[in-house]
Amino acid sequence: IKIRQVDSTGAGDAFVGAVLKQVSDIKNKQNISFEEWKKIILFANKVGAITCTNYGAISSMPILSEVRNLF
What we know:
The protein is mostly helical and 71 residues long.
């Protein structure tokens, strides 16, 4: 995801948190399809990318509407 990077602090934590949030919302975690994994990772990539566009770890975490509106 192309972004204008400002600070990468917290990007990895944001990515992992986004993956865990998406997986926790799935009822049947034993049968996550490849297509579902692609959506989960795309969402997490967006969260990590947006986090890099601002300074700081917590203050740069996006809200859900920012992630959905990225593209």
